Structures are given as C-alpha cells and as structure tokens.
Amino acid sequence: MLTALAILFVVVLLGSIAYGFSIVVRRPPTSAELNTERCTLCRRRFDKARLIEREAGDTRVFYFCNECITRLASDAEALRAANEISS
Ligand SMILES: [Zn+2]
C-alpha cells in the first residue's frame, strides 16, 4: 500500500514538473509565423501577402492561395460549360 502511494506521489511530482516545464518552454510565435497564414482549402502555409483574404460574418477570416483559386475557377468554368451543354 505504501509502495503504491509512493509510486503515485512520484508520478504526480513528475507530471507537475513536466507541466511547469511546458509552460516555461512555450515561446511566443516568431515573426515568420506571424506573417504567414494557412490556406483555408489546402492548409499549406504561405506568406500573408500572397494569400487572398475574405471575411465571413464578423469573426471568420478565410485565406486562399493562388493555386486553390485557380482550381476553383477552372471547376466553376467546367460547371458552367456543363450547364451550357445540358440546357
Ligand atoms: Zn490553397
């Protein structure tokens, strides 16, 4: 019983040390990370200056990379062409 308590104590102690260490190690984002954002569609990280930004509602902001916009445009074009043929 005492051994179990001792093991529990050590586990709790190690856990709190690891927790405290993670707080100390946590660093602010670097300037490179502040100037980049992920594309909403492909999730790749780009420089903010290279992304198209669109707001939806008050808080949501979407970023789109050039490649995804090009793909959307060609999808829209294909859809338009398909609708033109069928009508
Ligand atoms: Zn993208």
Structure description:
- The protein has 87 residues and is of the alpha+beta class.
- The chain has one domain.
- It has three helices and four strands.
- The strands form two sheets. A two-stranded antiparallel sheet has the order 1-2.
- The longest helix is centred in the first third of the chain and has 24 residues.
- The radius of gyration is 25 Å and the shape is elongated.
- The model has no long low-confidence stretch (mean pLDDT 89).
- The structure holds zinc ion.
- The site of zinc ion has 7 residues, from helix 3.
Keywords:
two-stranded antiparallel sheet, 87 residues, 3 helices, binds zinc ion, alpha+beta, elongated, 18% strand
Strand content: 15-25%
Strand order of the largest sheet: 1-2
Mean pLDDT: 89
Distance between the termini: 81 Å
- Main β sheet profile: 2 strands, antiparallel
Secondary structure elements and their pairing?
Blueprint: H1 2-25, H2 31-34, E1 36-38, E2 45-47, E3 52-56, E4 60-64, H3 66-86
Antiparallel strand pairs: 1-2, 3-4
The structure holds zinc ion.
Summarize the structure.
The protein has helices at residues 2-25, 31-34, 66-86, and strands at residues 36-38, 45-47, 52-56, 60-64. With 87 residues, the chain is α+β, with helices and mostly antiparallel strands.
